[in-house]
Design brief:
The complex is a heterodimer. By secondary structure, chain A is of the alpha+beta class. Chain A has helices spanning 37-43, 89-93, 96-100, 116-122, and strands at residues 15-17, 21-25, 31-35, 48-50, 57-58, 63-69, 72-77, 82-87, 109-113, 123-126. Chain B folds into 2 domains: 3-175 and 215-264, Bira Bifunctional Protein, Domain 2 (BirA Bifunctional Protein, domain 2); 276-342. The chains are: A alpha+beta, B alpha+beta.
Chain lengths: 127, 348
């Protein structure tokens, strides 16, 4: 397990969504999504990250991306219905980035929610 | 007091959880590997209890870990010669050779009454396969989080994943080990590397038969395993049958997914820049790294234990076994390979 604190604390406007994810709204209506520090600690040292395909739309919870640590694969879905805009290539190339900097360089993907209000409805505490 | 009762007494109270046990027996590779995916969906929906599946494949096949790349992992010449299917599992870990001399156990369970998932569940549930093996005369131990070993040699590989709203843990016991197939199936950048890989597999992977001189019957192993889950305080189980919806889902969705070439050939993961061109985990911390040497047509091969280089080779350019030259420790070439290994994330 990764026990070191995150090197970069959450920035302004970063909110939890669901038990494992955070999101940060961008000016263009998209949101950046990542794994919370607590979730990356639970997962342990990540060996693989396969991001969701940019341009593809998913329903909330539908398996869209995967993470692997210690031979255990988590198949994760998007927190709300939406379309993936980008996947973080740095996290795919070096999944350890997610452990080292979960709120910064280790973001997972950027998406455009189908119904922006869905995010607000599911929003957790500000991190 | 039976062996299992002695274990139960040492572990504590009788487990309250009642699971279903599906024994698929000998069956084709897709069913042996992937029926549990169909089961997981029923478990997640609350249609059936958490479930233990046992099975024995009736033919050999190659199983890719979920994040492994078919095009980068598998030697196509081997596939053409052996004509075996390649199946991608939804769980983690590396590429494995599976055949009728291996016995499978698989768990599909809900988070709320089975466990949170993740590597800690591997450690918890694998107490039972260890206990069953020991009662049948195999002195297995758990090398956390996911290998059963005898001494330092792997006799069982295990992995897990979250699928369709449930958790799946899969594992198998090596009754006999086909070391040649295990090494020949791997795609390698130079033929001289294959003998090095085979030797390391022979050194690190053992089998039930090699350790004890004989093999218990599948049924005896299965029954001991079922009892061990109870005796270890994990769950009791009752024999059951697949539901019609599980059979239908398996035929129409699970099998179709595994027969779809786009599922087998998921795109390879992006690679970090650096000298490592091939990373082969053999067992636990043991493996090989193949490295490119800048400005030459040679490759370096490091046989590693974690980040420690145990042996190093310079490979190429001649083809065949003659292409590999073992490097003496203390030489510049050895040191160069050791430096590259130290800077690599390894088998994190």
């Amino acid at each position: 397990m990764s026990s070191a604190p995150p090197r970069v604390p959450p920035g302004a406007g970063v909110c939890a969504i669901g038990p494992d994810l955070w999101y940060r709204p961008e000016a263009d209506g998209t949101v950046v999504v990542g794994l919370t520090d607590a979730a990356q600690r639970r997962a342990g040292a990540l060996a693989h990250y396969r991001g969701p395909l940019p341009g593809r739309s998913f329903r909330a919870g539908e398996p869209a991306l995967s993470l692997e640590s210690e031979k255990w694969v988590g198949h994760l879905g998007l927190p709300v219905d939406g379309t993936v805009v980008a996947t973080n290539p740095a996290a795919e190339t070096d999944p350890g980035t997610i452990n080292r900097d979960p709120y910064g360089a280790g973001w997972l993907y950027r998406m455009r929610p189908r119904v922006p209000a869905d995010l607000e409805a599911r929003r957790g505490p500000v991190l | 007091m039976s062996g299992h009762d002695a274990i139960a007494a040492s572990v504590g109270e009788e487990p309250r959880a009642l699971w279903r046990h599906l024994d698929l027996g000998r069956c084709d590779p897709v069913r042996a590997q992937a029926f549990v995916e169909s089961v997981a969906e029923s478990v997640a929906a609350g249609e059936v209890p958490n479930t233990l599946v046992t099975a024995q494949p009736n033919a050999p096949y190659v199983s890719l870990g979920f994040h492994q790349s078919f095009s980068e992992e598998i030697d196509e010449g081997f596939l053409a010669r052996r004509r075996v299917p390649v199946l991608r599992r939804v769980e983690g870990g590396g590429t494995t050779w599976l055949d009728p001399d291996q016995w499978f156990y698989q768990l599909a369970y809900r988070e709320e009454d089975g466990g949170p998932g993740g590597p800690a569940d591997l450690v918890r549930f694998l107490r039972a396969p260890v206990a069953a093996a020991r009662l049948l005369g195999l002195s297995a131990e758990l090398r956390a989080p996911s290998d059963l070993v005898v001494g330092d040699r792997k006799v069982s590989g295990n992995a897990g994943g979250d699928w369709a709203g449930a958790h799946i843990l899969v594992g198998g016991v090596l009754g006999r080990a086909d070391h040649r197939a295990m090494s020949d199936l791997l795609k390698l950048p130079h033929p001289a590397i294959r003998p090095i890989v085979r030797e390391e597999i022979e050194r690190r992977v053992t089998s039930w038969e090699a350790e004890t001189g004989s093999l218990p019957a599948y049924a005896a192993w299965r029954d001991h395993l079922v009892e061990a889950f109870r005796a270890q305080g994990l769950f009791r189980s009752r024999p059951g049958r697949p539901t019609p919806s599980e059979e239908t889902r398996f035929r129409t969705e699970t099998t179709a997914r595994h027969e779809d070439p786009s599922w087998r050939e998921l795109p390879p993961a992006a690679k970090a820049p650096g000298p490592v061109v091939r990373r082969l985990r053999i067992a636990g911390p043991h493996g090989l790294l193949v490295l490119s040497a800048t400005g030459t047509d040679r490759l370096g091969v490091a046989v590693v234990h974690g980040a420690t280089v145990r042996e190093a080779y310079a490979v190429g350019p001649p083809a065949g076994r003659e292409g590999a030259r073992r490097l003496a420790e203390g030489t510049d070439e050895f040191a160069e390979i050791a430096r590259a290994v130290a800077n690599d994330p390894g088998f994190a």
